[in-house]
Amino acid sequence: MSKSVDEEEHSLEMHLPYIFKALSKIFPRNEMPPLVPILVGNTSPAKEREYGDILAPYLEDESNVFVVSSDFCHWGLRFNYTYYLPAANSAPNEGLKLGHKDKPTGSTIYDSIENLDRLAMNAIESGSHAAFINNLQGTGNTVCGRHPIGIMMCALENLKRALKLNSLTTDFQFIRYERSSRCEGVSDSSVSYASAFARVECEDVAAQFEDDMRPKPRGSAASQDHDSTMGHAS
Q1: Backbone angles phi, psi at 29, to 5 degrees
Q2: Fewest CB atoms within 10 A around its CB: which of 108, 128, 185, 203?
Q3: Which pLDDT score, from 0 to 100, does residue 219 have?
């Protein structure tokens, strides 16, 4: 990685304070688990499947936790993305790009942005990497962490096939959605944020997970958990 890329890359730096805060509730400061940063650049769907296969065994190990960084839609002229869905039930490919002087004729712009994001979130929750790729190709949604998300989806698909797990135990579930502002016109802009989790539950893993998350008394034996952080390179 060049110095200029390193200076502009901020996904890991954004993660660290939150990871430290969360782990501080469980581990003494001198017994923090190791952190393994993984920087994901502009990959292809085939490479996402390849890297997903590589990471699947680590995802299966209940002592590992993966954290994936991504914003969702970056909307506005300054992001060169003004895709607009005129109705709540519009298909991903039924939108149009708004120009500087265009005005929406159906849904508000901020509702359209949420619809775009919900379509992407639904594709992720489906557990199908192909569905997620198709959604992004249809809308062009500027989900900046789409590649690490894709890799983790491929890893989960790999585990479902290998362990014969059902979707309820492995697929992502979204728990919160926010936007930086409510866009009224094309000159406005906003960035969307969404939070999701996925948990692989094999035999006795769920009970072990709950036990591991309980606060441990100071001086107790340190866990060997590894926190693998996946960032996106913009």
Answers
A1: -60, -35
A2: 203
A3: 46
